[in-house]
Amino acid sequence: MIMRVTCGFLGLVLLGSCGTPEYRAEQSLCRAEWQQKIPPRYEQQLVERVRYEQRPTGQTNCTTVGNQTSCQQVMTTISIPYTAVETVDVLSSRRDVQIEACTVRACAARYGNPECKTGS
């Protein structure tokens, strides 16, 4: 299964995705460098995915106002797992680790801290 990195996921990765403008600038320079050193290698892989569907439960909810009765089917959400073929960069995780390490080093050298925080 392929894992996508998002804000809130693991310490250093968090800094890279959601950091200061200075951090993102340093990260951009590191990304360009490491894209050259570890270029993407795309391969097709089988991945597990899930899609969601609404299905009727067989129950209905009816309400009556005056002499009018209206009924609606009660629905439930079900998950349906499936396998898909996707093209993925098999070197992205290796490259991302190097980009984050490079960014932290650059921030520490330039700003004196790994987050590139300025004195303000």
UniProtKB/TrEMBL annotation:
The organism's lineage? Bacteria, Pseudomonadati, Pseudomonadota, Alphaproteobacteria, Rhodobacterales
PROSITE patterns listed in its UniProt record: PROKAR_LIPOPROTEIN
Give the source's domain of life in one word. Bacteria
Q: What name goes with this protein? A: Lipoprotein
Which source organism? Answer: Cereibacter changlensis JA139
